[in-house]
Amino acid sequence: MATQEAVMTTQDVANRLHELFKEGKWQEAQEEFFSEDADSIEPAKAQGMQSVKGLDAIKKKGQQFNDMVEEMHGGYVSDPIVAGNYVAFAMGIDCTYKGMGRQKMDEIALYEVKDGKIVKEQFFY
Length: 125
Fold this sequence. Notes:
Blueprint: H1 10-22, H2 26-33, E1 34-41, E2 52-53, H3 55-68, E3 69-77, E4 81-83, E5 86-97, E6 101-114, E7 117-124
Helix pairs in contact: 1-2
């Protein structure tokens, strides 16, 4: 008889994401939870960042962001808010960008979970 692996609930995913985000383990979160065809949506006003589709493109976008950062001064992530298949976090960073100086940014990050995997992330800032 084959055993079926239990699928994580949205709350389980939220709790684990929170642990990873608090430790700054963004790439580990992507590897562990993002579906191969996930969407990553940036606001229309985003400077230097664009919406992408697919885990490889999301990883590349993350690397592009990291490459823009000269120095990270701090950041935070709130406890998760879970509603149905969605998880939201308030997040913020304080960093110096190459050629742009020091800036603080606050945002809401919204994740849609399906079958224990993130199928969409969307940022509001």
